[in-house]
Amino acid sequence: MVNLSPCLVLSWILAIMCYFHIITQAYQTKSTQNISSFPNSYPSEVGSGFNVIDSCWRKDSKWASNRQKLADCAKGYGADARGGKNGAIYVVTDPSDHPIHPKKGTLRYGAIQKRPLWIIFKRDMSITLEGGELFISSYKTIDGRGARVEIANGPCLRLDNVSHVIIHGITIHNCLRGRLDLVRHGIRVTSSSKIWIDHCYLSKCGDGLLDITQGSAAVTVSNNYFTQHNKVMLLGHSNMYLKDKKMHVTVVFNHFASGLGQRMPRVRYGYAHVANNKYDEWGFYAIGGSSHPTILSEGNHYTARNDPRTKEYVV
Ligand SMILES: *[C@@H]1O[C@H](CO)[C@@H](O)[C@H](O)[C@H]1NC(C)=O
Ligand SMILES: *[C@@H]1O[C@H](CO)[C@@H](O)[C@H](O)[C@H]1NC(C)=O
């Protein structure tokens, strides 16, 4: 507690608040990142070392000619997510964004169509969304494989009252509030089901990196890389929101890397299976819950930062 001496003179409650405040401040950093410096989260050797999800598609060196096979590869509660399977391929060619009248060729135009679409990207691109969050409609896959695609420095992604959405291989960072809304999440999933978020890179947003709330169910969060953010993943909206009792989420094969504070995940009411994740460090805690959640945590690998406060809860 050497750095917290002002707190010591106060009650233990204030001590916790002080500590929490320091941690929160530490993770409010904002900076832009270099798209070519993002870690490549795919295993490098084809045929070895794949987990059960990756081996399903990645062992096939011709995966790019059978992209929709990916939809059969999810495990856990989101395994039924079909995404845009059996729909047309839609190619994003234009990184610009027009929230009111989206142009053909942009991500927003494809993502809001009613019919199933498998959305891919013609080349590497950095997309800054304008106005407000991009509300993705049901039966969509956003498939970043083969291109480096980032959504950054503006509003980011929203799934609300939808089902069958797959988001794979997209980098999302520095999500900011748009002109038309107040939200600063990376990916926000509300009242939705059959959702699979796989191999995304998420960091540095104004609010949760990946929050799954308001009666969402049947979700898998796998193979993602989280870094540089305080409140990582909230499962369950609030203590008053009893619909989250039906929530069931699988959190598997994720890498919770450097500079994270808490909520990996934090669970309210529902059921979370948290397995085979790697935790490099945390500022406050890694997995937590309140309001009678059930958390099955198994096979996770934890390394605490070299700071006694993160190894044992000391007040
Ligand atoms: C991005 O990173 C690459 C490789 O590390 C480097 O060559 C390039 O100069 C960087 N670009 C910027 C804008 O920092
Ligand atoms: C959710 O979507 C369904 C159609 O898929 C619609 O009938 C319903 O009104 C929507 N609910 C809300 C709260 O928007």
Describe what you observe in this structure.
- The protein has 315 residues and is mainly beta.
- It has one domain: Single-stranded right-handed beta-helix, Pectin lyase-like (Pectate Lyase C-like, 3 Solenoid).
- It is 10% helix and 31% strand.
- The longest helix is centred in the first third of the chain and has 15 residues.
- The N terminus is likely disordered.
- Bound molecules: 2-acetamido-2-deoxy-beta-D-glucopyranose (2 copies).
- The site of one 2-acetamido-2-deoxy-beta-D-glucopyranose has 3 residues, from loops.
- One of its GO terms (molecular function) is metal ion binding.
- Keywords: Calcium, Lyase, Metal-binding, Signal.
- It is an enzyme of class 4 (lyase).
Q: What are the main properties of this structure?
A:
disordered N terminus, eight-stranded parallel β-sheet, Pectate Lyase C-like, nine-stranded parallel β-sheet, 315 residues, binds 2-acetamido-2-deoxy-beta-D-glucopyranose, mainly beta
